[in-house]
């Protein structure tokens, strides 16, 4: 017996094939969401067929991994958590690497010709802003590798894998920068295959798959947070965030040097993913500048010093201005004396210490930065606030790539992590914060003090490091101790806090020489990244995670929590600043 669709006779087998292709296309394109419940009757109505071919189509799609049929006869579109996406990435690495190796061995000429034709169409699609066409060509590029590998079993496994990969690919935000980077990588693989540099082509393919997997993981990261009850993050383009920061600081009367320094420091933190010290702090800084706690037009000056060392009185400047001023002085003195050290007093909160160590490293020197802050961290075994979070930062340049970068609080977590967790509605990790009696708590609303770095058994190490930062920040500049400072969070926004800080630059040329230093740093970084890795782990050099995040955020935007966006929106309305333009929520 025959059934008709659009007046064309189609037998039952063809109906099920057509239903399968139609449902598959809707899943891959994103018309059906991951995890969405599907019913046979609903699909039958949608496709204009009976339930029988739909049922057969769903069974076939289950074998393809696109449909999940449960024991209670309910049907859902597949969904993937972070661990499953990571495993899919591993499988892609295994299959595509072998397919590339075989294709380059058996059919290098035809493979190169196929990639040339596909990349040309990819270039054309991007030039016409045809992102949907580009994504299909992306899939075709990878299919070509399997088509030329000369192994039917490898090809068959790719087909089953490719449906989920394409479904994930179609759910990615295809912004121009991401597309351009993707195209560049595909062009690179094509060129390496054509030139016979097959090992390099394989290495670039593996790197490309790794980055793609990271993008897929980003895709599910915030929905997973939603399930935990967290408020999703909001993204803002880096250029827009910088524009809003400058306009807001100017609106409260900050001088150009302060506007530049504060924006630069906040951009460093938010771009590298150090959100606790990024633009979440801008509303607080604006209040401090408006209220007079921070001098809007300071005149920092050197009050003492000899040789490579000096004291900088910051004139109650914003901490970022004071620290960047100290960086300039330290670098200049290091070029003359081999090292430059600047003790700062009369400052304020300076954000991420790593910003200043990095600024020194960008000048070809090793940079160190320290500061103290109001007491909020108990001693090891203590039950009262004693030290501040007292960060330590260091950065060292290498021959290639970004610097080795360490930026750490000497507390188990920074205080701003508590504030961010309150904003996002997230619990804190175990044993990082305490209530008023020194008892550890995970609810950020109950936190009265932080624990020192090192946990219950080794907190004395963190307390000792906090003391090191305290001595450098206070004793060398005659700045107040942590316990003597006014609190950062206070109704009093008119009284300066007078924080201390310490910045040091070491010029490698004054020691074994710049070339030697950079070469050793490169060997050291290579050794770290090439060291043996435990199961399901990844070894990273200090700063690697942050530099990777910076690359990602330049493409996808800076993350802000809803509370910060609301506060900045209120400020913009009150001060006539063009409102902050966001990209998206939860992506």
Automatic annotation (TrEMBL):
**What domain of life is recorded for the organism?**
Bacteria
What's a single GO MF annotation on this record?
DNA-binding transcription factor activity
What the entry lists under SMART domains is as follows: FCD, HTH_GNTR
Cell membrane: is it a keyword of this entry?
A: no
Q: Supply the SUPFAM superfamilies for this chain.
A: GntR ligand-binding domain-like, L-sulfolactate dehydrogenase-like, Winged helix' DNA-binding domain
What sequence ranges are listed for the domain HTH gntR-type? 13-80
User: Known EC number(s)?
Assistant: 1.1.1.154
Enumerate the Gene3D superfamilies for this protein: 1.10.1530.10, GntR ligand-binding domain-like, Hypothetical oxidoreductase yiak, domain 2, Winged helix-like DNA-binding domain superfamily/Winged helix DNA-binding domain
Say yes or no: keyword Zinc present: no
What family does the Swiss-Prot or TrEMBL record give for this protein?
Belongs to the LDH2/MDH2 oxidoreductase family.
PANTHER family referenced in this protein's UniProt entry, alphabetically: MALATE DEHYDROGENASE, OXIDOREDUCTASE-RELATED
The protein here is known as: Ureidoglycolate dehydrogenase
Organism equals Salipiger mucosus DSM 16094
């Amino acid at each position: 017996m025959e059934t008709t669709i659009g007046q064309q006779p189609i037998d039952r087998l063809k109906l099920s094939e057509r239903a399968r292709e139609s449902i598959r296309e809707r899943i891959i394109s994103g018309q059906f969401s991951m995890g969405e419940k599907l019913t046979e009757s609903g699909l039958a109505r949608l496709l204009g067929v009976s339930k029988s071919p739909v049922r057969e189509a769903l069974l076939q799609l289950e074998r393809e991994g696109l449909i999940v049929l449960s024991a209670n006869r309910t049907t859902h579109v597949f969904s993937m958590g972070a661990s499953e996406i990571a495993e899919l990435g591993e499988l892609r690495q295994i299959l595509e690497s072998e397919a590339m190796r075989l294709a380059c061995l058996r059919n290098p000429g035809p493979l190169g010709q196929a990639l040339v034709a596909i990349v040309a169409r990819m270039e054309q699609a991007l030039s016409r802003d045809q992102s949907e066409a580009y994504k299909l060509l992306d899939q075709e590029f990878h299919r070509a590798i399997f088509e030329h590998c000369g192994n039917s079993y490898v090809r068959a496994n790719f087909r089953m894998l490719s449906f989920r990969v394409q479904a994930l690919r179609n759910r990615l935000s295809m912004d121009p920068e991401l597309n351009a980077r993707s195209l560049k990588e595909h062009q690179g693989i094509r060129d390496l295959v054509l030139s016979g540099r097959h090992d390099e082509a394989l290495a670039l393919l593996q790197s490309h798959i790794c980055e793609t997997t990271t993008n897929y993981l980003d895709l599910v990261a915030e929905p997973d947070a939603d399930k935990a009850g967290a408020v999703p993050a909001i993204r803002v383009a880096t250029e827009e965030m910088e524009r809003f920061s400058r306009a807001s600081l100017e609106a409260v009367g900050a001088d150009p040097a302060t506007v530049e320094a504060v924006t630069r420091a906040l951009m460093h933190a938010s771009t590298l993913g150090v959100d606790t010290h990024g633009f979440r702090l801008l509303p607080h800084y604006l209040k401090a500048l408006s209220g007079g706690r921070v001098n809007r037009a300071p005149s920092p000056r050197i009050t003492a010093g000899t040789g490579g060392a000096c004291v900088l009185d910051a004139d109650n400047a914003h901490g970022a201005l004071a620290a960047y001023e100290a960086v300039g002085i330290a670098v200049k003195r290091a070029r003359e004396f081999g090292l430059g050290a600047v003790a700062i007093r009369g400052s304020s909160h300076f954000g991420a210490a790593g910003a200043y160590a990095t600024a020194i490293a960008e000048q070809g020197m090793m940079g160190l930065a320290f500061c103290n802050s109001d007491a909020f961290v108990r001693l090891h075994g203590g039950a009262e606030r004693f030290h501040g979070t007292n960060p330590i930062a260091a950065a060292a340049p290498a021959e290639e790539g970004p610097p080795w970068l360490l930026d750490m609080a000497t507390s188990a977590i920074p205080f701003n992590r508590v504030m961010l967790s309150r904003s996002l509605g997230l619990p804190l990790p175990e044993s990082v914060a305490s209530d008023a009696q020194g008892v550890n708590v995970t609810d950020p609303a109950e936190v009265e003090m932080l624990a020192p770095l090192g946990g219950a058994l080794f907190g004395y190490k963190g307390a000792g490091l906090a003391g090191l930062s305290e001595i450098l920040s206070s004793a060398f500049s005659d700045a107040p101790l942590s316990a003597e400072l006014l609190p950062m969070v206070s109704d009093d926004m008119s009284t300066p806090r007078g924080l201390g800080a310490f910045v040091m630059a070491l010029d490698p040329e004054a020691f074994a020489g710049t070339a030697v230093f950079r070469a050793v740093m490169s060997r050291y970084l290579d050794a770290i990244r090439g060291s043996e890795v435990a199961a399901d782990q990844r070894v990273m050099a200090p700063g690697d995670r942050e530099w990777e995040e910076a690359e990602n955020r330049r493409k996808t935007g800076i993350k802000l929590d809803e509370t910060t966006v609301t506060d900045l929106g209120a400020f913009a309305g009150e001060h006539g600043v063009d409102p902050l333009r966001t990209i998206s929520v939860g992506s």
